[in-house]
Every structure is written in structure tokens, then in C-alpha cells.
Amino acid sequence: MGVIIKESARSTIISYSGVVIAFVSAVLIMPKLFSPEEIGLVRVVLAISGTFAGIFSLGISQLVFRTFNRYSEENRNGYFSLVLIISVFGCLLSAPFFLYFDHGLFSFDGSISSLIDTVFFSTLLYVLIAARILHISFEAILRMTKSITFIAFMQNFFLKGIPIIFLGLYFFDLINFDGFLVLYILLFILAPLILILYLRRREGLRFGRLSTYSLKEKQDLLSLGGFGMLNTMAASLLLYVDTLMVNEYLREMSVGVYVTMYLFGSVVGVPNRSLKLISGVFIVEAIKSDDFEKVKLINQKSSQSLLVISGVIFALIWGNINSITGYLDPVYSLGASVVFFIGLAQLFDVYAGMSSEILSASKYYWIHTPITLLTIGVAIATNIYLIPQYGIIGAAIATSISFGFLHLSRLLSVALLFKTTPFNQKVLIGTIIASAVITGTMYLPSLGNIYIQVVYKSTLIVTTYGLLMYAFKISTDVNSLVDKYIFNRFKKG
Predict the structure, then answer these.
(1) Alpha-carbon distance 346 to 362, whole Å?
(2) Of the residues 60, 282, 472, 480, which has the fewest C-beta atoms closer than 10 A?
(3) Residues of the chain with pLDDT under 50
């Protein structure tokens, strides 16, 4: 578990550096330079391309996750070729669907950008979809080689940091909004090429002749790929359904407000994503060797560590919500509650522990598909019902309900099949502490200056929350890190 915490700590540091960069870009700069409609257009382009890429990646990430470790290093050239062939086939398969939906799904407001309804923009969107398919494929390989730090670098510095340069060009009138949009899309197109070059250098990636597969191996690959494809399709729809439906009902301006406030709530899930990237690999190895005690240990310790870290982040964000809305333009204050419900949705994932990774690595991987499909139904139904009544707050509530259903279903499946849950007495005590501190933040007195207010509230929240979690030893791994990097240094000093 120490290796997992150490590697995830590195990627979490990079991830939160990326969060700071994304915060500066998406919250401090973009709302001041672009209108909510323009921000909404950028996010809808990413949502649509992400949905298409998830569907037409044909479950390759799940396939790699399940089969990568079956091949020795000398046999992986043919395996890399198989991944590439599946990815290219997915790109080609997406073309007719893209052309069919081009004038329906991609119905943007033409007053936002002169690029809309041009052949150039349609071509750029399709290339973006193909690039994101390749990105999914080769990022899956990087994950299995435990290159988590590089993945975090690409996600948080490359894709979030470089756009600040584009914003600078816009600020100095060197490009207009159309130019920014094109550069932003080209950045995502470049990303998979960098992944391939990195794999070539670090792992000696070569695209050799395809390996010869027996009939049983082919059937196994088709089965894994089929369930992986259904699961990835559903997961992609689940990831972007709220943005797409907000755009459908309320259009780009509301999308701009929604995704800006969504960013704050999603910060709660950053340590979760970082820890699961590396923990998932160890789960695969443990299940392969039938070491279910190790699986149980990782499941429980991951949840405890994440409760400590994600809980304090939620408390910090919600405790400072008035300062956040005070900085932004008044139109964004309508989305304050979005932050709460999206943050809550991220915490549901914390309580599910490693349920998703355990199912994916086991012979019960297929259970993901019906669970995710049912969740899509819940998401669409709740969005249809809540968005017309409550606007973007309704979309956030629908997301929270959907995520709660998804993670509870996975948690119960693992509990029934493997007789393990992440819950124990420490998780219960940690939940009581987190709930008390988060509730307490609502009653902290406000000061006139929003910047002074952030400092005083954040200091009080971190001190109270941190001392309580440390004193009750909610996570021995987090306590060890605190002892090593804080208390021991003070002792030496």
C-alpha cells in the first residue's frame, strides 16, 4: 500500500498543480475574457467529441486493462499493433455516424463563432474525435505500465497549462475567439502523438506483426471487447450527459455557467482519480494471484485515505463558496449549489472504494455493463425531469443522484461477490468528522474582504479537520506521510 500511496501522491501533486492551472484558466481568466456562451461552446465541443470518442474507442481501455499483463515484453509489439488497429477501426466506424449527426447534434448558435457550419470546423471536429480515440487507447497502455505520473502531467499540465498561453494571445489581441478555439482543439489532437512518442521511448513501443491467436483467445478478446465497448459507451454518455442536456434545454450560456461551477465540485475527486489510476494496477495483480486479502486491504485503506483528503477539499470549497461567487460575475452566483451537489457526487466515489477496479479485474467484469446502462437511464430521466424545473441546479442534482446510484450498485456487487467493503469503524468516525466540519463551515462568520475571508476560513477548516483526522488515526497511510514530511522535520529542526 505504501507504493500505491507514494506513486499516487506524486500524481496527486501534479494533478492539483493542474487544478490550480485549470482554476487560473477556467475561473480567473476565461470568465473575464469570454462570454458564458463562448465558454459553453468550448465545453460542448469537448463533451461531444468525448462522447463520440468513448463510444467508438470500442472498449479498448477495458480490453487493455484485462489483457495487457498476459503478454511478455518480447510479445508486446504485436499487441501494440492490435490496439492501433482497433483504434483506427473505431475512427473509421465513427465517420458515418458523425456525418449523420453533423447538423443535428452539432447545432451551435452561429452568432458565437464564425467557424460554425463551415466544412473546416466539421473536419476539425472529426479529427478531434479520432485523436481522442487514440488518446484513450494509448493512455490505457501507459496506465498498465504504471506511468501514472506522466499521465497526470499530460492531463494537468499539457492539456490545462498550454491553453493559458492561448488566452494570453487572445488578451493581447493576437488571435480572436475563433483562433483560440482552433488552437484549443489542435492541442487535443497533438496529445495522443506525444503519448505514442513517450511509449516508444520508455517502453520501446514498436508496431510489429500481429500475434497468432487461438480460437479461444479470439473468443475471449471479442467477449472482453464487446462488454468493454458497451461499458465505455455508457460511461462516456454518463460523463457528458449533463452538459449535453443543459445545452439542449438551456443552450450555451447556461453550459458556460454550469461547467465553470462544476469545476469547483470536481476538484473533490482529483485525489480519487490519482489513487485509483495506480491502485487499479495492483488490484489486477492481486486478483491474478488470488490474493484477496491484499484486495481487501487496498479497498479499505484507499477509502480511508481518500476520505481524509477529499473530505477536507470539499470543506474548503464549500466553506469558501461566498468568496468564489463574490469573485465571479453575478451570473455565476446562480450556480453556487452546483458546486455542492457535484462535490457530493465525488464523495460517493470515495465511499465506493475500489469497487469499480475490483469488478473490472475479476471474472465479473461484465457486471459493469448493466450497472452503467441502468445509470444512464437514471441520469437521462432525472435530467429530463429536473433541468426544466431547476435549470443548472437540476442538472447537478441529477448528476449527484446518478453517481450515487452507480457507486452504490458497484459497492453492493463487490460486497455480495467478494464479501468485502471499504467500510469499517474508521470510515464511520471519519464521516462524522467530515460531516461536522462541512456543516460547521456554513456558520462561520463572513468578513468584508473576500481574500482575507478565504485565508481565515481555510486556515480554520484545515487545522480543525486535519487535527481531528490525525488524532483519530482515520488513515494510517496519511498519518505516516504527515509524520514523515511534517512532524519529523520539525523534530530535526
Answers:
(1) 24
(2) 480
(3) 1-5
Count Cβ atoms within 10 A of the Cβ of residue 493 and give its class: 0-12 exposed, 13-18 middle, 19 or more buried. Answer: exposed
**Domain range annotation of the chain:** 2-477
Dihedral of alpha carbons 313, 318, 324, 325, sign: positive
pLDDT reported for residue 2: 47
- Helix or strand or coil: residue 187? helix
Cα-based torsion angle of the residue sequence 33, 181, 52, 98 in order, rounded to the nearest 10 degrees: 130
Q: How far apart are CA 358 and CA 287, in angstroms?
A: 8
Percent of the chain with pLDDT over 70: 82
Question: What's the rounded Cα separation, in Å, for the pair 16 and 22?
Answer: 9
Q: Do residues 362 and 287 touch, judged by C-beta distance below 8 A?
A: yes
* Gap between the Cα atoms of 175 and 324, Å rounded: 29
Residue with cell 509489439: 77
Closest CA to 265 of 209, 329, 328, 338: 338
Which tens digits make up the pLDDT trace of 306-330? 888 889 999 999 988 888 888 887 8
- Three cell numbers, residue 348: 460517493
